[in-house]
Amino acid sequence: INKNDIKATFFVTDNINPKIKKMLTQERLISLGGHSHSHPDFRTLSYAKTLSEFQQNGSNYGNKFKGFRFPFTNNSFWGMKVMEEFGYLYDTSIAVNHLEFYRGSVFQYNIPIFKDGFFQSLDLLEISQNFHDDWYYYQNLDKNKNPKIVAAKFDSYLKSLWKRAIVPNHGLMVFLGHPMYSGINETTIKPVENMVQLAKE
Predict the structure, then answer these.
(1) Which secondary-structure segment (H or E) carries 121?
(2) How many other CB atoms are there within 10 angstroms of residue 151's CB atom?
(3) Contact (Cβ atoms closer than 8 angstroms) between residue 92 and residue 104
(4) Residue 41 vs residues 32, 71, 78, 134: alpha-carbon distances, Å
(5) CA-CA distance, 183 to 169, in Å (whole number)?
(6) Which of 113, 142, 156, 164 is the most exposed place for a label (fewest CB within 10 A)?
(7) How does pLDDT run across 91-114, given as a tens digit for each residue?
(8) Mind listing the pLDDT tens digit for each residue in 29-39?
(9) Any idea of the CA torsion for 8, 62, 180, 96, to the nearest 10 degrees?
(10) Are 182 and 138 in contact (CB under 8 A)?
(11) How far is the C-alpha of 82 from the C-alpha of 75, rounded, in Å?
(12) Distance (Å, rounded) from C-alpha 196 to C-alpha 201?
């Protein structure tokens, strides 16, 4: 991030090493977004429990979040409703996949929610991220898989999404990654570095 002088958003839960939390809050190029208090599946939560997840997560970071990513990228009716109530500007949980089928969007859009006959278009934007993330490629690296081959596949996927779906439509691409996957070593981080370089070019 510092090498390329680019801004990035880290979506954080409350289960974070205090040293890393302090480092992230002090970095000039990093902003923080919410990712919940306890990393639950929001589809199973009531309104009250959803409210509690947002309240606790936000208060532990000074209530400065503008964006949110639902754990497991599973959003919910109550989650979206609470996000708008709390004044969030965007969600980034509905992944874009225009290579295998049409899901998500390469453009920001206002999120509609509906439940039991109730419908509302929220004053909340969806900013879609890549459908296949680093977890998809790196989750089983410890099972005798060659990191270079797996990283090359991830790199190829990101470039294909960029060149075939994003650029022709003058769209927006959000990279979804995790420090515990892309950050394993110099090989697994390479697709991220290549994507940054490609975007800058």
Answers:
(1) strand 118-126
(2) 25
(3) no
(4) 21, 6, 12, 20
(5) 30
(6) 142
(7) 999 999 999 988 889 999 999 999
(8) 999 999 999 99
(9) -50
(10) yes
(11) 11
(12) 9
Token pair, residue 157, equals: 């996927």
CA distances from 125 to 88, 92, 113, 173, 178 (A): 9, 8, 12, 14, 22
Nearby residues of 60 by Cβ (< 8 Å), 6 or more positions away: 14, 37
- Report pLDDT for 160: 95
Dihedral sign (CA 88, 77, 15, 72): negative
Helix (H, G, I), strand (E, B) or coil at 75: coil
pTM: 0.87
* Torsion sign (Cα): 9, 12, 18, 20: negative
